Amino acid sequence: MATQTSGGSDFVNNLGKIYGIYTGGFAAFVILLAILEQVGVPDRVIGYLFVFFTLAVYAGIGVLSRTMQVSEYYVAGRRVPAFYNGMATAADWMSGASFVGMAGTLYALGYDGLAFVLGWTGGYVLVAVLVAPYLRKFGAYTVPDFLAARFGGHFARFLGILVLFACSFTYVTAQIYATGIIASRFLGISFEVAVFVGLLGILLCSMLGGMRAVTWTQVAQYIVLIVAYLIPVIILSAQRYGVPIPQIMYGQALQEIAGLERQLVADGLANAETLKPYLQPFTNYNPLNYFGLILCLMIGTASLPHILMRYFTTPSVRDARKSVGWSLLFIFLLYFTAPAYAAFAKLEVYQNVIGTSIDALPNWIYTYGNLGLVKICGADATTMDAIRAACASAGNPDGILGLSELAINNDVIVISMPEIAGLPYVIAGLVAAGGLAAALSTADGLLLAIANALSHDIYYKMVDPHASTARRLTIARILLVLVAVGAAWLASTRPADILSMVAWAFSLAAAGNFPALVLGVWWKRCTTAGAITGIIAGFGITLFYLVMTRYGGMSEWFGVRNISAALFGLPIGVAVMVVVSLFTPEPSKEVQDLVEEMRKPRGSTMMEGGDVVAKPV
Amino acid sequence: MANGTDEAWWSKTKGLMVTCLIIWAIFGFVIHFFVNALDRIVILGFPLGYYMAAQGSLIVFVVLVFWFSGRQDSIDREFGVAEDDY
């Protein structure tokens, strides 16, 4: 590209070396902290060093990647190699909740929790086959931008922005909330202050360099998060089974769990009627909800704007496709390890907690009991006396713990693993740094998606189409800061409702975006009227179902859970889109040519600098 | 625009799309309908039905996406609609 600067291409050509040195430096840093811990530096200081060092590195990358070019700001100049875009997408995708909460969900739900593992990986097949390469060829800066060009006009754009907001804003609030939780736990500062420390980290990464800065920090964050996720469980697997491959060795743990479950029932420590065997399918979700959830998560994945826009940054359509493969591989590394975490934690609980006398509980119970994350006999497990008192009044005088008396917060599973394995504090610090990286990288991506929709789609396209480059970028940055501060303020109020609404994002994105994106590419006959009515119907019904089942007291339709709401919105959206399209005159020759052109990889992008380029005849 | 080569290229592309979606549907859904039957087979401690949902299908998805991107690229090259190598 003509706009390439020599400094920039030096950087892109040396990515392997740069990130190799970075990874080595990070390993050296962890080893240094391990040595400091051995010579007696207090845990609190180790925690501070972890958080501040990693934040400083991300911010440094953000500042070095600052830019004043529109295409650098919105799509990183379209020269992110497939492999690195895959890493960045993996970090963009895996949120604080994936990192900290996924294993806990599997711990709690057993087989049924695997719906999340399947749904959040299988969706990438749809991204690669149906959507991403075509959007890359089209060359839009945002998803609403594509909808506007394909479905002629501001109304489609406006609907795209609405869907984007609905699925991104609650999500970014939850990420900032997670940053605050992790930072406050490891820095020992109040949650409200920690939220704004996290906000600072997010803004430094994204504000100056837009997509370019976010891309290169996300790659750095992926490396930290995957190392932090794998190390504790690899060590635990080596300790228990002598082989450092947890993903294979947890098969043995599964068998031991099944054996212990039978034992617990035989010993009267668990009730045969209420015990949900870990490996038995459909104990928590019935098959309709299980498969419905998989479908909604898959299609939602293929429709989330902050994920799709990552594939706008590759040098070619070919790279966009390959990049989806890399993304999925990097995501897979974490998701196929999560069930191992869950199984090892389950085994630890069945062996060393249930059936144990209150005098002999392992230490980690108290560590997390004091944080309010472990409850025994209905009370926080803060001290041995507190537990004994609670259990005595709950009618358990013998002091032997039964299964129903223990309640563990999902987040404990990953965080407590270093302690369960008896590892030094530095590994716990590493896990915290990983969780922070996961939350920050997702927050960056979401924030950029929201701010770009505001600055590019609303300001530049709808308010002032003649704005100069400098003005567009200034507006983009101001809006980014405003959205970030708004989300941080909301997070600091600990909004329980917002946090539980995050799971809605997938259904809302699936019903709102997927039909229009896929039919827009694959069906030339899809008309503007069809797309608009389809989006309104699909998105509207999904939103109606979500709100009414949660707040309106409406009972579930066919017993479908709230989280799989797109099961209704999606087919209705598609049906309306098809029927209305068939009843309206077919799209103009111009639009049909646009679609044909978009399908072919050959040739340059069809939009440059955010405007459709007139096609040379 | 719509000449013979383009049509042949697009129908091959559509064929690949359908193939990929069938494989996706089999490993995303169909195989898990039979989880109880598969669970009777146990390998290295893993009941097979559990294993497929926790790892097996995921591995298929990863391989499928890489295979798809290679196949689509060779279709594009065959009909001359691929991008120039750089």
TrEMBL record, chain A:
Pfam families: SSF. PROSITE patterns: NA_SOLUT_SYMP_2, NA_SOLUT_SYMP_3. It is a multi-pass membrane protein. The chain crosses the membrane at residues 21-39, 45-65, 86-108, 114-135, 155-174, 186-210, 222-241, 290-312, 324-344, 425-454, 475-492, 498-522, 529-548, 563-583. One of its GO terms (molecular function) is symporter activity. GO terms for biological process: carboxylic acid transport; sodium ion transport. Belongs to the sodium:solute symporter (SSF) (TC 2.A.21) family. It comes from the Bacteria. One of its GO terms (cellular component) is plasma membrane. It is found in: Membrane. The keyword Cell membrane applies. The lineage of its organism: Bacteria, Pseudomonadati, Pseudomonadota, Alphaproteobacteria, Hyphomicrobiales. This is Sodium:solute symporter family protein. It comes from Microbaculum marinum. Keywords: Cell membrane, Ion transport, Membrane, Sodium, Sodium transport, Symport, Transmembrane, Transmembrane helix, Transport. InterPro entries: Na/Glc_symporter_sf, Na/solute_symporter, Na/solute_symporter_CS, Na/solute_symporter_VC_2705, Sodium:Solute_Symporter.
UniProtKB/TrEMBL annotation, chain B:
Signal peptide: none annotated. Residues 7-81 form the Sodium symporter small subunit domain. Keywords: Membrane, Transmembrane, Transmembrane helix. It comes from the Bacteria. The chain crosses the membrane at residues 16-35, 41-68. Coiled coil: none annotated. The keyword Membrane applies. This is DUF4212 domain-containing protein.
